[in-house]
Amino acid sequence: MSVTSQQWREKLGSGKSYFFFDNPTYGKRSNDAIVNVIPDAWFEPTPVLQNPYGGRRSLFYDRIVWGGWAVGAHTERADAVAQLLDFMYSDEGAVLKTFGIEGVHYEKVGDDYRYKQDVLEKYKNPTGGYKIDAIVTDIGIGGYGDFNPYIDMRLYRLTWPAYQIEWYEKMEQDPAWSDPVSDPPFNAEERATLADLRTKVQTILQQGIDKVILGDISLDEWDAVVADAKKAGALEIERIYNDAQRRYEATR
Q1: How far apart are the first and last CA of the chain?
Q2: Which residue ranges make up each domain of the chain?
Q3: Which end of the chain has a smaller Cβ tally under 10 Å, C or N?
Q4: Euclidean distance between CA atoms 105 and 203, whole angstroms
Q5: pTM of whole model > 0.85?
Q6: 178, containing H or E segment
Q7: Which stretches of the chain drop beneath a pLDDT of 70?
């Protein structure tokens, strides 16, 4: 909590640090740096720890790419726009936007989709793997930053070594990992109230977490932080979320 991301990356790559908290994809970057300094050193994900009550719980990073596309109220072909969006969320649309055209850019082997070898060779990275961003840019199929609402992550695993793929497979097989839950839709009054309360509560909690990590307060003092968060509106936030979720479920 007391260093910047650049500082802890430098510490990781020089053997001065042995831990970082981030997307496990970056473990490869840390390993590439550290083995040049300490050949026997190695980073890999820590299994989800067990709490004092025997529970194990952790969240995957949010696999929903947030963003949106606006359609004008006076659009003449609103039906065509809706059909395009519908197609982009289909399996066929995901494959098209991930791998391109079958027989031209990729081939299907069993249930697996693979870029054709001539495509891969053109974009081979001298240090290993392939320049995926260059492939999708030249083909014109885009990625996270483009019109691609339904993403097939097999594309990005082409750049990962076997051990990195194994990390994710172990996480996906571990029931302790679960996906984040999206917020329910709020009405205007709830959004205004949440904007105020969340700022107050999150500030109290984040400052408390920092103090615990840095040793400024003990874990025995954490209950006081929670009490302050409740006074600032934490329970009201809980009520608003539950009310909005119940409304949403009633309309499904």
Answers
A1: 42
A2: 78-161, 188-251
A3: C
A4: 49
A5: no
A6: strand 177-178
A7: 1, 62-68, 126-129, 142-148, 156, 159
